[in-house]
Design a protein that fits this description.
Shape: globular
CATH class: Alpha Beta
Number of strands: 7
Number of helices: 10
Radius of gyration: 17 Å
Length: about 250
């Protein structure tokens, strides 16, 4: 990401409806699939908001390639290391859960990152990941965020073939899909070539409105653990044992 995006993210991610909703989605799947007290790793930890959120559930560490991001984390006394998603500075079978939230879309080799997550996970450990969906929604936001692609559901699932069993795979951020489509269509019609991110401060009114919509959306998700459409994809995958991998 651009350096300026880290500054914006650190300022807004505790209160902005998008980041709050992402953590609420994460909370739902954690409550269903993950026991309290495990050792966790946040890959691409950014400025540390997810790590702070996870601290109540166990021991958490973070890894990121950006020194800018790591400095934000260190200011919050979070335990972080510098490293790449495809080559992390941890021993194998170290963690009970690995998180890669809006990370895989930045990588030239996301399959390698998934295999690396498998390496550092214990057998039966869980991998939680989110990515932006729908390549046809590609926009200057993706350019600014240094994305390589947006994912189709089938392509996202394929990343985990062999190493993992998928426990849950769903669209998320459903209600915001149509507004996002409209904004990006208007930008295209206006031929807006500015490579600016959609990550911006939102007003208190917008936050309240979107918080209400997300309350409804996440309440539905809590019942079905799946939504029929959305702007992003969420997966929960369980690492196979070495014997299971050999058989598959």
């Amino acid at each position: 990401m651009e350096t300026k995006e880290y500054e914006i993210m650190d300022r807004i991610e505790h209160d902005h409806f998008w980041f709050v909703a992402k953590r609420k989605y994460l909370s739902v799947v954690l409550d269903k699939y993950f026991s309290q007290g495990g050792k966790m790793l946040d890959v691409g930890c950014g400025t540390g908001a997810v790590m702070e959120f996870l601290k109540s559930r166990g021991e958490v560490e973070g890894v990121d390639m950006s020194e800018t991001a790591l400095n934000y984390c260190r200011q919050k006394n979070l335990k972080v290391e510098k490293g790449l998603a495809n080559e992390m500075p941890y021993s194998q079978n170290t963690f009970d859960a690995v998180f890669a939230l809006d990370v895989l879309e930045h990588l030239d080799n996301p399959v390698g990152a998934v295999k690396e997550a498998s390496r550092v996970l214990k057998d039966g450990g869980l991998f939680f990941a989110t990515v932006p969906a729908h390549q046809w929604l590609w926009s200057p936001h993706d350019v600014s965020m240094h994305h390589k692609k947006r994912y189709a559901k089938q392509d996202f699932a394929q990343l985990f073939a062999g190493e993992f069993d998928i426990l849950a795979l769903s669209w998320i951020h459903a209600f915001i899909l149509l507004p996002a489509m409209a904004v990006r269509l208007i930008r295209n019609l206006l031929n807006n070539k500015s490579n600016s991110s959609d990550v911006k401060e939102s007003s208190a009114v917008i936050n309240k409105i979107m918080s209400l919509l997300y309350f409804i959306e996440i309440s539905i998700f809590k019942v079905f653990y799946s939504l029929p459409f959305g702007l992003s994809l969420l997966v929960v995958a369980k690492k196979k044992s070495s014997g299971e991998v050999a058989k598959s």
